């Protein structure tokens, strides 16, 4: 019998296609993976309230979200790593003066520091989530913020990188970057899970496609980049599978001998 593995899946571009649809072959492959006795988890940059329906559909209760800053194992929170509140307050003031709005993301909801902005609307529209984003410029005060979305052009990114070394700025959209603690990543969050399990490191698996997957794909022994993935993700991964819409998850699991 094949040794037990734990498999972490990114969401956007990995489990879900560009239209944010879950391919039938992917759903069936994950069900078969669990039936074979393997652990299945999610590792995403999304907030937990952005993928509750997906967790329920796939019956997954272990996940790394906010790019590693918030980790849940079998329904229980095991790791929290919020952004430095004083530095985040300074970033919000500076970015607002530069007309770069911010969305603050907490455990249960998120708020924007401006009433309305084209870049925010454009970026969030690509996630295809059904929610009304409210305006609250003080939402970051007195509560843990695990990730923020800074809406700026790529040409403006270096300014923030040089000014705020305690933060990592990871681009996820042409007009926006994720803001996370510099010491945090999906790889760090994954370790919080794997440290609890009696599963050999060589049996750790991760599927991803984007820039926020680089640390995960580099560190995990059996890492797989999607065929539709960013060139740097493919370079970081040990293996490459087909695109998400070309049965990439199923083919990747078969390639590794897990199905």
Automatic annotation (TrEMBL):
<dbReference type="GO" id="GO:0000287">
    <property type="term" value="F:magnesium ion binding"/>
</dbReference>
<dbReference type="GO" id="GO:0016791">
    <property type="term" value="F:phosphatase activity"/>
</dbReference>
<dbReference type="GO" id="GO:0005829">
    <property type="term" value="C:cytosol"/>
</dbReference>
<dbReference type="Pfam" id="PF08282">
    <property type="entry name" value="Hydrolase_3"/>
</dbReference>
<keyword id="KW-0413">Isomerase</keyword>
<dbReference type="InterPro" id="IPR036412">
    <property type="entry name" value="HAD-like_sf"/>
</dbReference>
<dbReference type="InterPro" id="IPR023214">
    <property type="entry name" value="HAD_sf"/>
</dbReference>
<dbReference type="GO" id="GO:0016853">
    <property type="term" value="F:isomerase activity"/>
</dbReference>
<protein>
    <submittedName>
        <fullName>Bifunctional phosphatase/peptidyl-prolyl cis-trans isomerase</fullName>
    </submittedName>
</protein>
<dbReference type="InterPro" id="IPR006379">
    <property type="entry name" value="HAD-SF_hydro_IIB"/>
</dbReference>
<dbReference type="InterPro" id="IPR000150">
    <property type="entry name" value="Cof"/>
</dbReference>
